[in-house]
Specification:
The protein is an alpha/beta fold. It is built from 20 helices and 12 strands. The longest helix is centred in the middle third of the chain and has 54 residues. Bound molecules: adenosine-5'-diphosphate.
Length: 605
């Protein structure tokens, strides 16, 4: 299946994001750098004093050696203490930045239009929320502080070397071209390689998730071979991508190692020569070797973090890319003048070039009950989603009171029309929080009134802490019918004028059906209802029936008109009535005068 991957931010966008973050945290950052700078300064005491000790010993005067050794211990102790505080400060800094990044990312993810997620596949998003966030955590928690430490240490140690003797600072420069060339070679190739590694891993996860979720279908359609082939293909791509990054590392690091060791050796050799020539003191030559040796660790750290920061940067590009998804809602500021829903020449396609709706013209009057019937696959559910403003039509428009549904901000849209399906979710939290999702500013009275409207107030009051009882997985479990009532109460709170009921997805437990139907009837009362009817008795009750066939409205009129017209609806009606068990069905007209049933939640999109 071809996927439209979510976008990825480009380099300038990532850089400007990083710079903004650094600017925003200037003070904390200076504290971190300052403390690490002090620690690095204390670290310079040891090599300098070691040089002195060697010279003292070589000169045969041992008197000051003890003092020098004590001084050395003092420097090491001071460095240890300073490192402890510096590490603490940088950890705090990292955690803070990371927490902010996470919060921002959650907001970005939640803002992605549902249709984009459906097109891109969930695997991409899952990789971004798991693998990429983990990669960034690693970079932010450790990478950024350690890079800073490395830079500060390198600058101070290098400075000390020059201060000691500019001449002695020269031999170690042999490492510079080696490291520069190797690093440039590596870094240029690393970003695309790591991006590819992440992308292939998304594909792999996507495929595996699909295989597992669709295991039954695969079994039923004997699709093993295709699925196995796809998984093998994905595995191979992922393997190749990982091997490419591994190859980069195995070439780069050995060369880098030469770049580390050569300066130490050359400082030793040249330092010895300079000393023999009398250009430098013995203590200077010895200290220089120790200082260069001391440079290896931060340079190594810097390079390896450059590597990891590349990974982090690639992940950051993918996270920032999420916010580049264009919103499918472009508010125009037009407010609906009434609650009339009008569909004008609506066409829609899931796959390019294959429309499933072909120019739907339909106006639904406020307070009307419209039933949509027709064969499976005719486009009823699709039209329902468009009429509820969840998806935008390919061409044409769906408006409420003159305002296009997909141009209304989500909160406003939900006050006009909501899609009611079986999919609802009780979130871990108090019952109050669960209800307030629909209307955050709802008062206690409004919450209670909504519960009363759906007949749920009694059992809620019986809960150990009433509205403040924590419900959801692992906490106080509420039964499926109760969950459905909560979903209905959310609808009452959101108070949309129009409800689109998709009965295909509404399966209620027969034992609680009666009870729930009363709740639903209370919710439907006084609202415009568009019911996607999969049973004809619902249609019989409606003011008008729209027969959808092959993406078109084939017939439109009241039940009696359509029966009289003797078209496909009449045929359906007759065949349904002819079924011997029809009258005795739980949903039959005789058994139940108001059998429109569905359970509910406004679909979150
Ligand atoms: P109904 O509700 O009348 O059964 P639908 O609106 O579900 O019909 O489907 C209309 C057409 O659109 C069908 O041909 C169906 O296969 C296709 N369709 C529905 N959902 C999708 C989807 N997510 N991706 C691709 N095609 C789809």
């Amino acid at each position: 299946m071809s996927r439209v991957a979510l976008p990825i931010a480009d380099k300038p966008a990532v850089r400007s994001y990083a710079l903004t973050t650094i600017r925003q945290h200037g003070r904390e950052l200076s504290k971190v750098v300052g403390l690490h700078g002090l620690a690095a300064l204390a670290g310079l005491g040891a090599p300098v004093l070691l040089g002195r000790i060697v010279q003292t010993v070589a000169g045969g005067t041992l008197a000051t050696v003890d003092m020098l050794a004590l001084g050395l211990v003092a420097f090491v102790l001071a460095q240890t203490v300073l490192i402890r505080f510096a590490a603490f400060a940088s950890a705090r800094f990292g955690e803070k930045v990371l927490a902010e990044l996470r919060e921002e990312f959650v907001d970005r993810v939640l803002a992605i239009p549902l249709s984009t997620v459906e097109r891109a596949g969930t695997g991409d998003l899952v990789t971004r929320t798991s693998r990429d966030v983990a990669a960034i955590s690693h970079s932010v928690r450790r990478g950024v502080p350690e890079t800073l430490i490395a830079v500060v240490t390198i600058l101070l140690t290098g400075g000390a070397l020059v201060w000691l003797s500019p001449l002695l600072a020269l031999p170690c420069l042999v490492g510079v071209p080696i490291l520069t060339i190797a690093a440039r070679w590596y870094l240029r190739r690393a970003t695309p390689a790591y991006l590819r590694e992440n992308a292939t891993s998304s594909e792999l996860i996507d495929g595996l998730t699909e295989t597992v979720e669709g295991a039954r279908t695969t079994e039923a359609l004997a699709g093993y071979e295709r699925r196995t082939k796809r998984t093998q293909h994905d595995l191979r791509e992922n393997y190749l991508a990982e091997r490419a990054t591994l190859r980069l590392r195995t070439i780069f690091w050995p060369i880098a190692d030469i770049g580390f060791q050569l300066p130490v050796a050359s400082t030793l050799v040249f330092g010895g020569w300079f000393y023999l020539e009398g250009w430098v003191g013995l203590d200077e030559a010895v200290s220089a070797v120790f200082l260069v040796q001391q440079l290896i660790e931060p340079v190594d750290r810097l390079l390896s973090w450059m590597d990891e920061l590349q990974v982090g940067g690639a992940s950051l590009a993918r996270l920032l890319g999420v916010s580049m998804v264009s919103d499918d809602r472009t508010p125009t500021g037009i407010t609906p003048v009434d609650e009339r829903i009008v569909s004008t020449d609506v066409r829609y396609s899931y796959v390019d070039g294959r429309d499933v709706l072909h120019g739907i013209e339909l106006a639904i009057e406020p307070g009307e009950r419209l039933a949509m019937v027709g064969p499976s696959g005719a486009g009823k559910s699709t039209l329902g989603r468009l009429l509820a403003g969840i998806d935008a039509p390919r061409t044409g428009s769906v408006t409420v009171g003159g305002a296009s549904l997909v141009e209304l901000p989500l909160e406003e849209l939900r006050g006009h029309v909501a899609l009611v399906t079986q999919e609802h979710h009780i979130f871990l939290g108090t019952l109050r929080d669960n209800l307030a999702l629909a209307k955050p500013q709802a008062t206690q009275e409004q919450l209670r009134a909504a519960l009363a409207a759906v007949d749920a107030l009694e059992w809620v009051d019986d809960l150990p802490h009433g509205l403040d009882t924590v419900v959801g997985s692992g906490k106080h479990e509420i039964s499926p019918p109760q969950a459905q009532q909560i979903a209905l109460a959310r609808l009452v709170l959101a108070d949309p004028h129009t409800l689109v009921l998709d009965e295909a997805t509404s399966l209620i437990d027969p034992r609680s059906a009666r009870h729930l139907e009363r709740s639903l009837a209370a919710v439907l009362h006084g609202r415009t209802v568009i019911a996607i009817a999969h049973r004809l008795f619902s249609a019989h009750d409606a003011d008008r029936v729209a027969v959808i066939e092959d993406g078109r409205i084939a017939e439109l009129g009241s039940h009696h008109e359509l029966v009289a017209a003797n078209g496909s609806y009449a045929a359906l009606w007759r065949s349904w009535q002819a079924e011997p068990s029809a009258a005795g069905r739980p949903g039959s007209l005789r058994a139940r005068p108001h059998p429109r049933k569905s359970t509910a939640s406004p679909e979150q999109s």
